[in-house]
Amino acid sequence: MIVGSVKEIKDSEYRVGLTPNAVNEYRLNGNTVIIEKGAGIGAGFSDEEYVRFGAIIKESAKEVWDAVDMMVKVKEPLPSEYKYFREGLIIYTFLHLAADEALTKAMLESKVTGIAYETISEDGKTLPCLRPMSEAAGRLSVLEGVKYLQKPFGGRGLLLSGLPGVKRARVMIIGAGVVGMNALKMAVGLEARVTILDVDLNKLVEIDSLYGSKVTTLYSSEANIRETIKTQDLVIGAVLIPGAKAPKLIKREYYQTMRPGSVIVDVAIDQGGSTEVSKPTTHLNPVFQVDGITHYCVANMPGAVALTTTEALNNATLKYGLKIARGKAKALDDLAIRRGVNTYNGYITNKEVARAFDLEYFDILDITKTRR
Ligand SMILES: NC(=O)c1ccc[n+]([C@@H]2O[C@H](COP(=O)([O-])OP(=O)(O)OC[C@H]3O[C@@H](n4cnc5c(N)ncnc54)[C@H](O)[C@@H]3O)[C@@H](O)[C@H]2O)c1
Q: Does ligand 1 come within 6 angstroms of the Cβ of 247?
């Protein structure tokens, strides 16, 4: 198969679909790889590095789109890229189709095959290609909190770890999933006093046995959040209810009981956010203040550490990508990949996407049965 990557054109997106390492693996498995000139610069990979690992460099995105059987990207294609869609082309990337009617329509009309990182799953529950992004956002959430607690950035002038003879800062993490557990790891490592809340008792049991007296675990009830938040310096919103908007667990009325200059890092902002005032911000303008509380609400936090997250993303996507490159029959034998297929030959093959636009859903095995 001919596999390729182009430069991401979404604002402030520095990651790239294929690392030189991944190029090497595709090549060793008998594929040809084409990369757009300069595609990896934002993530720290030069054209020379790609060439060293066997890629062919093309001057323009068009040349890559026109040549490949499978386009490996990071972000969903933008409208200026729809003109490259054609029957049989595989696009392997984050798609988030349920939130993008124009893209869904363009993919169906052109009959491209869309395989979405975010719906690939071995067990129907965990999302291996999404996980590294949540890990990165969780770790970054504490680092951003550390920064915005500092006086020059509008904070109270607090050092998370305290100092000998001076109290440590308090961190509250709401949600003990992938983001929450990674935030916890950083906050404990930075020697803060940490409280973590979840409604899933199994997670709290796990944390209790892992961290013992270093961490306080609390059931995530309205009363526990209202009471605990009064004394916190940094609050991290890391809740997810799959398929739903994030619950507004942090009420504005709590702010009058909080200390001015405290920070809320609302990682769940991509699902609407965990506070009543959250609105998406960007890396260039990441924070705003409400009632003296600093809110950090960047919706694509992993993009800030593009080198690390490009590598982590490739580590997760490569094994499925290599299987897809072995051809339709091999790819469709793999349940995780079948779950990843969102559009195929003009059909919607993902239930959530079909539901989002009130369109008919087709089982990928039914529509490919006759063709395999
Ligand atoms: N801003 C960004 O750049 C960025 C990056 C990655 C992920 N995210 C978002 O972060 C959020 C968390 O992602 P994740 O991968 O950790 O999800 P996850 O499914 O691993 O964890 C979510 C946790 O929330 C818990 N939860 C559900 N309801 C709760 C409640 N009422 N109180 C407390 N906990 C509750 C669940 O039990 C679960 O443990 C998601 O909205 C995700 O989209 C944002």
A: yes
